[in-house]
Structures are given as structure tokens and as C-alpha cells.
Specification:
Elements (H helix, E strand, L loop, with lengths): L10 E4 L6 E7 L20 H11 L6 H4 L3 H8 L8 H11 L2 E6 L5 E4 L7 E7 L4 E7 L13 E2 L8 H15 L10 E4 L5 E3 H12 L4 E3 L2
Parallel strand pairs: 3-5
Antiparallel strand pairs: 1-2, 2-6, 3-4, 5-6, 5-7, 8-9, 8-10
Enzyme class: hydrolase
GO biological process, one term: endoplasmic reticulum unfolded protein response
GO cellular component, one term: nucleus
Length: 221
């Protein structure tokens, strides 16, 4: 049974015709202490927003307002908020900090963005993106195996792939797209929970919130 989970429980992805099983770990955005990327150089599992904030604060020339979209200090305060999560900038920083490629698969477009590729790192981790948040992917040796046997870090081979696990991940993403297990943030319809006005897409929702102060939206079809 294929599904994506951002909950506390692991969800097993049974890939027909393959001995391996892919699983989704809880949301990286919501559960920042997952051993997804491994540990830092001191062997300590880090809280990812703290890694990002420290990196950005250490180089204000590189991470300037034009690059971040907001002043350096303001960004650092923003990113450590547990309700916030970024995208390309943050994943690029994490890839370089841990010295591992990060493959981020987008369910809606089937696109895979590979961070750290130019560094030719020897290991890779994987994410799947549903339009609202990222979930980390792992591989379990068999159904019912304890969580400590999950594999989240994969060796990059000479052809710059990670072997069969890469194909399994892509098949999973395709199945999630077929099931429409994603949110189209550019075109989804929302209704303001305060004034009941309908808006289309994230852009209109942000504009409505800025104009009215209303921040309670519900998706409807």
C-alpha cells in the first residue's frame, strides 16, 4: 500500500516486484531532530533550523537581503521558528553542512532537485515534497523491521546514482502523483475563515492576509 505520512508513525511503501521497501519518516519540517542527515562532526544530532541560522549568520555578505529576501538577522529569527520551513536555500545549506547530496522529489511535477551535486559528495539522502512540506525517505530491509534498521543515507556510485533505491523513489513519486497526493499552491482554492471570501492560490491568500490581517484559511474544492 502506497501512501505518504507526516505523522509520528512510519508508513511502509510496498514496492511490487522489488525486495526493498521505502518508508516515509515524519515531516522534516515538524520533527527537526530526525537522524535523517546523520550527525554533525561532533556526533550530535542537530536541530536543522539552528544549523541553517548559524550558517547564515556567519556569512552576512553571502547571505544578504537580496539573496534571502529579508535582512540577515530577520531571516535567522524567522527560520528558527518551528512553524516555518524553507526550500532551496535551506536544503543547499544542509547539503554543504553535512557533506551529503539531498535529492528533493516534487510529487506534482516529478522534478528532482539535487543539492550539493556540484561538490561530488559520496552520499545522498532523499526527500519527497507534496507542495506544503517535505518528508524524508528511508529504506527498510523488510516489512515489520524495527525503525533502527531504516536506511536514510545512500552511497553515490561512480555513475552518480544511488542504484536501485533511486528508481524505487521515482516510482513512489509517480504513484503519489497518480493519486494526486499533493497540493497545487499556485491554483488551489481557499476560503477565508473570517470573512468567507474565496481566493485562488498562495499569492492571493498572502495578499488578502496582508490587506485584512486575516490568517485563517481553509482549502475547498
Amino acid at each position: 500500500m502506497l501512501s505518504v505520512s507526516g505523522s509520528d508513525s512510519r508508513t511502509i511503501f510496498c514496492m511490487e516486484s522489488f525486495p526493498e521497501l521505502l518508508v516515509s519518516l515524519p515531516s522534516v519540517r515538524a520533527y527537526n531532530r530526525l537522524p535523517w542527515l546523520g550527525t554533525d562532526i561532533a556526533g550530535v544530532a542537530m536541530w536543522y533550523p539552528e544549523v541553517i541560522a548559524a550558517t547564515v549568520a556567519s556569512d552576512p555578505e553571502k547571505y544578504n537581503e537580496a539573496f534571502l529576501g529579508k535582512p540577515n538577522g530577520e531571516y535567522c529569527t524567522w527560520i528558527i521558528d518551528p512553524e516555518k520551513w524553507g526550500g532551496a536555500i535551506e536544503l543547499s545549506i544542509l547539503a554543504d553542512y553535512y557533506g551529503r547530496e539531498i535529492a528533493a522529489y516534487d510529487i506534482q511535477t516529478l522534478r528532482c532537485d539535487l543539492y550539493g551535486q556540484e561538490r561530488t559528495y559520496s552520499e545522498r539522502v532523499m526527500l519527497i515534497y507534496n507542495g506544503l512540506h517535505y518528508d524524508a525517505l528511508a529504506m527498510s530491509p523488510c516489512e515489520g523491521a524495527p525503525e533502527e534498521f531504516d536506511q536514510t543515507i545512500f552511497a553515490v556510485q561512480n555513475d552518480r546514482t544511488i542504484g536501485p533505491a533511486e528508481g524505487h523513489a521515482l516510482n513512489l513519486v509517480k504513484e503519489q502523483q497518480r493519486r494526486r497526493s499533493y497540493t497545487d499552491t499556485a491554483n488551489f482554492t481557499l476560503r477565508c475563515g473570517v470573512c468567507q471570501i474565496g481566493v485562488i492560490g498562495q499569492k492571493e491568500a498572502v495578499e488578502h492576509a496582508q490587506a485584512t490581517g486575516h490568517a485563517n484559511f481553509q482549502e475547498y474544492r
